[in-house]
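Q: Given only this backbone (598 positions), what sequence would you predict?
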């Protein structure tokens, strides 16, 4: 079942109403109107960090007092940061007691972390209104059941609250997390195709010249679209003809990975995309294509990923496994047609410039789709028109945002149906992103730790990743290294800490401590041991995996992760299994615990 945005209301007015019913109806309408306003507000603020951090599940929370006054707001800034609900409660302070919390989506930004639910309960929140249930199977319904179990009234839009105005509010919640919903239902990233064309439908002249079709204002909007994406994908033809940089050009924050998709590896030896000083480039290609050029690009630091059969769906499934939520396609007509034909493109952004260039051989934005009749044309859903400078931006969905009902049963629900299936009977347990199953095992999870600083004092680190990245430079007697440690320590998210540490390591390898390669496993071990020692629920979660192999499912990190086909060393998984054995008393700890409770 899918939700075609703009659906009919399920409620119809009756021509015959008694006075008491009409009065009650008006009261409900007023209450629904207020609920709808705050749910839409929660959806709006959930998107606040777009462009500053890599795409992640978008959570927003608005706390309103019984009088209808907003007491506090919060949103999830990035993977591994404070939950939206925690921030909203902190902002509202004592006004939280007896108030209503409006959430665009059921809590669950990190599997295994319960801080969002705890914050609402401990603050004395009386009622919670939830826009949509969490779309990921392992998180779906968990927080709602927990909140209700703690005695809070929980109303879910579309289930407990049904009206036309609430359906519109629910649509806002679906749209702000469309990438996550598509990931949950189709196992490919949310894909947006963007192109600029003239009024007569051309993306370049007959000679191939294309700079610039659209205005500066339109190009600035493209930079915004890039900042909202995990990656930008182009074809080999675009690299050869345009030599793009594909940067977000915002001077900071999140910069998407560049992906080049080429069947033959017919690429130039020199190109802007081979400069990876600021952002990485990945080339995906057919196995065995031009090995000598592959080796050359690899020497420049470009990552090459080979496929037995190269097609858009295989590539998107790979990047789904890599944890990507959203991808922007800026390719030519041939690759665009292939992606659309494969059913991979979910949304279109078309910038139409008031220009005419003509040309029988001038390229168009979408190549051959095999359509012979107008009845075969693909219609956009939820079309929007917006003037951007002199251009017209037309956007819309090629596919509707999937509805969340029916859903795949959660682990608990499956066990209730079939007791022979237990949630933890798997022999191999994979973890990667914080919102994935067992996401709390990640070094990016939002669990601060306190570690000794060498002088007998304890220092608080926002996450294991903050501690790990900073310790690449700890003890180096250089002002730049010391400054880098402090910047990493104060980074707003694990993602930013990782970006700072990796960038400095790449640009100034001389600042990395000389013993780092032999020490980094121990640094990670000590931080992980501290995390699982001071958070009882995390230790309990780890112990429930006894007998299972733990694998960090990164397909590209061959040291800490398991790799794409199991070729990785999986040191993160190994350390967790070691720590699990220590807690179970199966082996002695290699070092004394060096952390303290927060």
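A: Predicted residues:
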């Amino acid at each position: 079942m899918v939700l075609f945005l703009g659906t009919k209301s399920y409620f119809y007015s009756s021509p015959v109403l008694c006075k008491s019913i009409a009065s009650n109806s008006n009261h409900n309408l007023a209450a629904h109107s207020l609920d709808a306003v705050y749910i839409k507000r929660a959806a709006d603020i959930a998107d606040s960090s777009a462009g500053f951090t890599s795409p992640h599940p978008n959570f927003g929370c608005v706390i309103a007092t019984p009088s209808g006054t907003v007491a506090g707001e919060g949103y999830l800034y990035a993977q591994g940061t404070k939950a939206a609900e925690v921030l909203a409660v902190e902002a509202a302070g004592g006004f939280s007691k007896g108030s209503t919390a409006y959430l665009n989506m059921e809590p669950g930004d990190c599997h295994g972390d319960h801080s969002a639910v705890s914050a609402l309960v401990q603050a004395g929140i009386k009622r919670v209104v939830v826009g949509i249930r969490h779309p990921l199977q392992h998180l779906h319904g968990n927080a709602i059941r927990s909140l209700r179990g703690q005695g809070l009234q929980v109303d879910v839009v579309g289930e407990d609250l049904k009206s036309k105005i609430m359906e519109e509010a629910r649509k806002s919640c679906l749209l702000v997390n469309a990438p996550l919903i598509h990931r949950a239902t189709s196992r490919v990233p949310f894909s947006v195709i963007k192109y600029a064309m003239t009024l007569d439908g051309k993306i370049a002249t007959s000679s191939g010249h294309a700079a610039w079709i659209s205005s500066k204002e339109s190009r600035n909007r493209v930079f915004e679209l890039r900042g909202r994406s995990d990656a930008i994908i182009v074809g080999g033809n675009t690299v050869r003809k345009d030599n793009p940089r594909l940067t977000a050009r915002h001077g900071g924050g999140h910069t998407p990975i560049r992906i080049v998709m080429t069947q033959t590896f017919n690429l130039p030896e020199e190109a802007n995309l081979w400069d990876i000083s600021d952002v990485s480039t990945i080339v995906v290609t057919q196995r065995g294509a031009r090995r000598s050029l592959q080796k050359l690009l690899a020497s420049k630091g470009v990552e090459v990923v080979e496929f037995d059969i190269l097609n858009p769906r295989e590539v998107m499934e790979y990047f789904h496994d890599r944890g990507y939520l959203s991808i922007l396609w800026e390719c030519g007509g041939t690759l665009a047609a292939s992606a659309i034909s494969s059913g991979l493109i979910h949304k279109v952004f078309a910038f139409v410039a008031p220009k005419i260039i003509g040309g029988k051989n001038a390229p168009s934005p979408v190549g051959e789709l095999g359509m012979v009749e107008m009845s075969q044309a693909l219609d956009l859903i939820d079309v929007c028109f917006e003037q951007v400078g002199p251009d017209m931006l037309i956007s819309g969905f090629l596919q509707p945002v999937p509805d969340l009902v029916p859903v795949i049963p959660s682990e608990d629900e499956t066990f209730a149906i079939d007791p022979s299936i237990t949630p933890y009977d798997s022999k191999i347990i994979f973890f990667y992103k914080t919102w994935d199953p067992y996401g709390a095992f990640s070094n990016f999870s939002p669990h601060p730790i306190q570690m000794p600083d060498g002088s007998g004092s304890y220092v608080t680190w926002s996450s294991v990743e903050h501690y790990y990245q900073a310790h690449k430079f700890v003890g180096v007697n250089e002002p730049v290294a010391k400054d880098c440690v402090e910047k990493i320590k104060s980074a707003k998210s694990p993602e930013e800490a990782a970006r700072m540490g990796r960038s400095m390591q790449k640009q100034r390898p001389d600042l990395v401590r000389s013993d780092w390669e032999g020490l980094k496993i121990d640094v990670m071990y000590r931080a992980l041991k501290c995390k699982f020692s001071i958070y009882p629920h995390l230790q309990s979660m780890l112990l429930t995996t006894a007998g299972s192999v733990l694998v960090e499912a990164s397909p590209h990190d061959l040291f800490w992760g398991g790799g794409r086909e199991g070729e990785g060393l999986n040191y993160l998984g190994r350390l967790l299994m070691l720590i699990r054995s220590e807690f179970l008393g199966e082996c002695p700890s290699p070092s004394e615990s060096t952390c303290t409770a927060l």
